[in-house]
Amino acid sequence: MAKKDYPKTNAIRCLLKHGIPFEVFTYRYEPKGGTGVSARELGVDEHAVIKTLIMETNARDPLIVLMHGDREVSTKQLARVLKVKSVSPCEPKVADRHSGYQVGGTSPFGTRRALDVYAEQSIFDLDCIYINGGHCGLLVRLTPSDMHKALKIVPVQIAI
User: Fold this and answer.
1) Which residues contact 109 (CB under 8 A, 6 or more apart)?
2) Rounded distance between C-alpha atoms, residue 116 and residue 148, angstroms
3) Could you give the domains of the chain?
4) Beta-carbon contacts of residue 79 (< 8 Å; ≥ 6 apart)
5) C-beta atoms surrounding 3 within 10 Å
6) CA triplet 62, 66, 69: central angle to 5 degrees?
C-alpha cells in the first residue's frame, strides 16, 4: 500500500536530497521471506523487486550488488568482472556494519559509508522498480535510471 506517512530513513533522506521521485510502499515483513513476500504483499512481479546484497571480495572489500528478486547472483561471474579471486555474501552482522542497515532492510541509498554498487544490467530495462527504503517492510518505487543521481552504479551481467 502506498503511503504518505512513512519512516524518514537514511535511504529516504538520500532520495530526497538527490531529487529522485519515489513512492513509498509498506507491507507486513516476514523474516527470511525475501522478495517473494514483498512481491506477493504488494501484488507486483518479483522480477521488479530489487534486492540489495552486501557482499565482499576475498580481500574483505565490501560492495553492493543489486539483483532482481527472482534471480540469483553468479559470484563466479562477479569475481571475474571485479578481477578478484572470489566474492561471497557478507555475514549479516558484517553486512549491517558496512551498510548501517539491518539485513532485511538494506537499501543501497544512504549507506553508512560509500560502497561500490554493481547492478544487474537488465534492471535498467524495467519501467519501475521496488527497492528497499532502509527499513524492514518498506519499499520505494522509482525509475531505475534515477538511481544514477545518487549512486555510482556499474551495470554488470551476473544473473543466473
Assistant:
1) 10, 11, 14, 15, 134, 150, 151
2) 13
3) 2-156 (3.90.960.10)
4) 57, 85, 86, 87
5) 11
6) 130
Half-sphere exposure of 12 (CA within 13 A, CB side): 17
Nearest to 115 by CA among 104, 101, 129, 133: 101
The maximal CA–CA distance of the chain, rounded, in angstroms, is 45
List pLDDT tens digits, range 91-150.
999 999 999 999 999 999 999 989 999 999 999 999 999 999 999 999 999 999 999 999
Where would I find the H helices in the chain?
10-17, 34-42, 75-82, 92-99
Share of the chain above pLDDT 90, in %: 91
pTM: 0.93
Q: Residues 141, 68, 29, 64: what is their CA dihedral angle, to the nearest 10 degrees?
A: -90
- Return the bridge partners of 33, or none: none
Characterize 56-81 residue by residue with b for buried, 16 or more Cβ atoms within 10 angstroms of its Cβ, and e for exposed: bbeeeebbbbbbbbebebbbeebbee
Determine the Cα–Cα distance for residues 117 and 136; give it in Å rounded to an integer: 21
Place of cell 507491507: 27
